[in-house]
Specification:
The structure is a single chain. Strands 1, 2, 3, 4, 5 and 6 form a six-stranded mixed beta sheet that branches. The chain is 35% helix and 16% strand. The chain has 13 helices and eleven strands. Among the domains are: 144 residues, Nucleotidyltransferase, domain 5 (2-Layer Sandwich), CATH 3.30.420.10; 77 residues, no CATH class. It is of the alpha+beta class.
């Protein structure tokens, strides 16, 4: 496929180039980043017949303009490119022939969210290569994105009702994010409908992170408290710093005085272990072992077989025995997986989790994440990826202006 190549600049465009300041934010990042990976990535979407296509690097730079505050929308981008010679040059339209709004829409439809995700990941890899992102410690969390839709009419078929907490519901999507705690920059992201839980997406996010960096710790809140997430971290040589999900340990109103005084165990980690024996912390009754489950990391089944237990009505006994608990043969990785829970060191790493919250705040406040003007999960994902890319590039610009980057990438302009 043939793309439009650079031609001799017109006199008007040459004058515009001379007026561009050296500290122009667009010029700094567009010149610094190596964009040469984009044409091979998108070449499959173009036909080998017909006229020359627009330079895909130029098209992608145009997609970033609203996120840099240069335009309100892609329609506005198309209008400004007709007359703004500065934007024409910086985006690479050297002959003055600029795309229409329909051209941008067609490119989004052809490239889809998968292409924008690959572009985002490649740019993150470049920042890892030059030392902007270390990924030594990471943090995971999710945040909501309101759908560009009336919840009553539900004009966005992919959006779903989600719940942040007991009194806060939203109609839209979730973005699941993992960030480098030192720079608060994203390393990977997944967009889902708003009704999806957080915990299942820790595993693919950690897998994506391991392809780029080698983190030592991963901080997460109680929404990610599951054995699968602990095991995923341990299997990839990451220390999990995950808050415990209380799982209903607090007594509900209306319960008997006995329940409010005695602690009813809820999970295996709550049990008292003396040697190889386990005891109920509420009654001190010895519990019975009931074999191991080889398909689930040899976890040990522990049963309560005391029929006359004073808490039997609260433990919801089954026929023949009481509650079943699960523990691991050596240690409970929810309590200890490299750093002792609630120790000073553990709390220090857990406090790093706030970095992902600050990243969300920056994405929503300065990079339009909270204000999508598109419908559907594909378009919303593209919007989220472009917002993240803008954050990454702006941070590179700041580093360059501060002289904090000594290593330079090759020129990004693709001829």
């Amino acid at each position: 496929m043939k793309f439009k190549t650079k031609r001799q600049l017109s006199f008007e465009l040459l004058r515009a180039v001379q007026r561009i300041k050296p500290d122009d934010p667009l010029k700094i990042v567009f010149d610094f980043i190596d964009w040469s990976f984009i044409p091979p990535l998108v070449e499959k979407f173009y036909s080998s017949q017909g006229n020359e296509a627009y330079n895909p690097v130029s098209i992608f730079k145009c997609f970033l303009l609203p996120y840099f505050g240069e335009a309100r929308s892609m329609n506005d981008v198309a209008e400004k490119l007709k007359f703004d010679t500065r934007l024409q040059f910086l985006c690479g339209f050297y002959d003055g022939n600029t795309p229409s709004a329909g051209t941008f829409s067609n490119h989004k439809s052809k490239w889809k969210d998968d292409t924008f995700y690959k572009i985002m990941r490649t740019l993150i890899a470049q920042l890892v290569a030059i030392g902007v992102i270390s990924g030594k410690n990471i943090a995971l969390d999710s945040s909501h994105i309101f759908a560009y839709s009336n919840p009553k009419k539900q004009s966005d078929p992919d959006a779903q009702w989600g719940c942040k907490h007991e009194n806060y519901y939203f109609f839209g999507y979730k973005i699941h994010l993992v960030v480098d705690t030192e720079t608060q920059l994203p390393i990977d992201a997944i967009v889902t409908p708003g009704n999806k839980a957080d915990s299942p997406y820790a595993k693919p996010l950690i897998k994506g992170v391991k392809e780029l960096v080698s983190p030592e710790t991963a901080s997460m809140d109680a929404a990610y408290d599951s054995y699968d997430n602990y095991q995923t971290c341990v299997n990839t040589s990451i220390i999990p710093i995950i808050d415990l999900n209380k799982r209903g340990k607090k007594p509900k109103s209306g319960n008997s005085d006995l329940f409010s005084v005695l602690k009813v165990p809820t999970v295996g980690s709550d049990l008292i272990q003396i040697g190889s024996n386990f005891f109920c912390p509420a009654t001190n009754f010895k519990l019975a072992k009931d074999g191991k489950e080889s398909k689930r990391n040899n976890r040990q089944k522990i049963l309560c077989k005391h029929k006359n237990c004073p808490l039997s009505s609260k433990c919801k006994p089954l026929k023949g025995h009481g509650r079943t608990f699960y523990v691991y043969p050596t240690c409970d990785i929810r309590q200890y997986a490299g750093i002792l829970r609630d120790s000073e060191e553990w709390n220090l790493f857990y406090n790093l989790r706030t970095s992902v919250e600050r990243s969300f705040s920056e994405l929503k406040g300065q990079h339009l994440l909270e204000r999508p003007k598109v419908r559907g999960i594909v378009s919303t994902s593209i919007h989220a990826f472009l917002s993240i890319i803008a954050l990454l590039l702006k941070r590179v610009k700041d580093f360059l202006l501060q002289g904090r980057l000594k290593t330079c990438l090759p020129s990004g302009r693709w001829e």
